[in-house]
Amino acid sequence: MKFLSSLLGFAAVAIPLQGAAAAELGPLDISGFIGVETRVFPFSSQFSGQAGNAEISLIVTPEFRYRTSDGKHQFSFIPYFRLDSRDDERTHFDIREAYWLYRGGSWEILTGFNRVFWGVTESNHLVNVINQVDLVEDLDGEDFLGQPMINFTTFQNWGQIDIYVLPGFRERTFPGSEGRLRAPIPVDTSSPVYSSDLGQKHVDVALRYSHYFGDLDIGVYYFWGTGRVPTLVPNQAGSALIPHYDIINQAGVDLQYTKDAWLFKFEGIIRGGQGGTFGAFVAGTEYTFFQVFGGNADIGVLAEYLHDGRDASAPATPFEDDIFAGMRLALNDIQDTSVLVGVIVDPSSSETFYTIEAERRLAQHYVIELRARFFTGADPGEALFAISRDDYVQLRLARYF
Amino acid sequence: MKNSSRKLLSRLLLAGLFATLLAGGAYAGELEDKGFEIAARSDRSDRGFTDSVVDMKMILRNAHGQETTRTLALKTLEIPDEDVGDKSLIVFYTPADIYGTALLSYAKILDPDDQWLYLPALKRVKRISSVNKSGPFVGSEFAFEDFTSLELNKFTYKYIGEEVCGDFTCDVVERFPRYENSGYTKQIAWIDQTVFQLRKVDFYDRKGALLKTLKLEDYREYDGGYWRAQTLRMENHLTGKSTDLIYSDYAFKTGLQDNDFQKGVLRRVR
């Protein structure tokens, strides 16, 4: 009996204690969105096996965040799921983020899956090297697969240093045989080839310094590991492309000089390990006309030059010597309406790529987003010819919570 | 005769004009000093707050009275030097699609601020042009300069009198932006004579017309003698639109450091 009462007494004490502990830990923060997305391709497909002229997708990506009351420990968990009506390769699940972040005084350490975006230009994102691109999501290289990492960061009055240790390589996603926006023969992602004996287990590393000096923002990094962009090599039967992943050394720099309404941007890389060592850069400018026509809207005008010096043994790029021109419209209204239109032209071949991105909030929780992409002027044998009949218009309605 | 009397008259008039100008000039200097003193007393009543953290609700109302709401948090780090502006971090919570969007600003006195915008969907930090201070802040009737450009030395001042303002007597001071690219030619500020806080501001646009009126209400005194208005109401006389900022309780001296105001921490501010 005594044992039971002391047990009950203990339970009575334990419950409020547990309550106090829960209060200290703070609530779980849940956000994210559910979206319905449709893509319409006005032209019939070019290759056999490509299905239909329209597809519909369901996207679910809840975001869970949690921090201790002292703010020293932060946790993030963001799964991502897309169900696509047509392409089995587009139907996929990923963990975008799943990390624990610990904050010291002037340093922090992040362990787990995360996404890292560097860079300043709009037409191409050359310097991003930490994450694999989730290519089935979009062509623009802005959707990342979660990368396992240990990321140590320190803040000093002379700048920020990041050290990344990246165990576990993520393979690039590619549209399947039913999918549009692919090469004449589909990519077989089941048997990639690695130049390292360690294959997917190769541990990559990166070191980055970033800071700002007055109007100049600067980032410089070095990466050694498995390059995120594979070379696509046809198999013996010629029925599929096999991704070959190489060990690369890459140094990169991103700069932005911000002066009045002008932004001057530069991103450059030097890469060794895929054919001869080569350099590539994007350089450009953006000028904003504020409050145009006496209203509240801002119009930005963008121009960028893209150069890439790689040889034929490196993964192909459509941006060897191209010019990008674009315009950004922000209405600055309560719906945060924005439009970005752009065109990338290869002056030597007249290959042209048009893009339109627009979005607007419909009500407190709903956002509608339009994306349209058009490809013209590519002749057989040129980089964009395979997708020259894959112009599309995409509409997404998302409910945020 | 006629001629000489006319000459005399014109000379007298001229002399009178000079005298008025001279006297006026001297008087204007006094008014400017007094205006500056009043503004400085108000500004200095806030010295030593070190840092502050506050949540706010922004209620945007169109001319038909339809409302939308945004919620955000504002963290401020005081930079004691009057020739350097404070550092601030704004994080948006709602609407849900912009949750985690953050704006980091290092205020300057006369130059454009240094500003970085964090876009959480891409996890991208963008240095942005801050030259346009007069545009609407996130679709509201507040311009960015309306709540960041409160540094004393951003304006020149002129005292124009005193007036009853609610339960207080206020000094009325004109202030003229010294920084470039302001959307205003002048502002008229009402500062009470009891606790020296700003009660009302009229904003005059580039054409010199009354554009907006800001009313600061529900002042509370926090530990250490720091006063904060809990409600800011901005009314646009041109469009009939208005925006209310409703502040929650402020927390002061929370231990924020310079390291909490780095572009590198924007990834983890929510």
Low-pLDDT runs of 5+ residues of chain A are: 1-23
SSE arrangement of chain A, N to C: HEEEEEEEEEEEEEEEEEEEEE
Helix fraction of chain A? under 10%
Treating each run of at least 4 consecutive H or I residues as one helix, how many helices of chain B? 2
Uncertain residue segments of chain B:
19-26
Q: How helical, in percent, are the residues of chain B?
A: 10-25%
Beta content of chain A comes to over 45%
Mean pLDDT value of chain B: 87
Structure report:
The complex is a heterodimer of chains A (401) and B (270). In chain A, the strands form two sheets. Chain A has an 18-stranded antiparallel barrel. A three-stranded mixed sheet of chain A has the order 8-12-11, with no helix packed on it. The radius of gyration of chain A is 24 Å and the shape is globular. Chain A contains one helix and 21 strands. The relative contact order of chain A is 0.12. By secondary structure, chain A is mostly beta strands. Chain B has one domain: Lipoprotein localisation LolA/LolB/LppX (outer membrane lipoprotein receptor (LolB), chain A), CATH 2.50.20.10. In chain B, strands 1, 2, 3, 4, 5, 6, 7, 8, 9, 10, 11, 12, 13 and 14 form a 14-stranded antiparallel sheet that branches. The radius of gyration of chain B is 22 Å and the shape is globular. The A-B interface holds A 29, 31, 33, 65, 74, 101, 103, 105-106, 108, 115-117, 119-120, 142, 153, 155, 160, 162, 210, 212, 215, 217, 256, 258, 260-263, 288, 290-291, 296, 298, 332-336, 361, 364-365, 367, 398, 400-401 and B 60, 62, 68-69, 94-100, 112, 114, 122-129, 131-132, 134-136, 138-140, 259, 262-265, 268, 270.
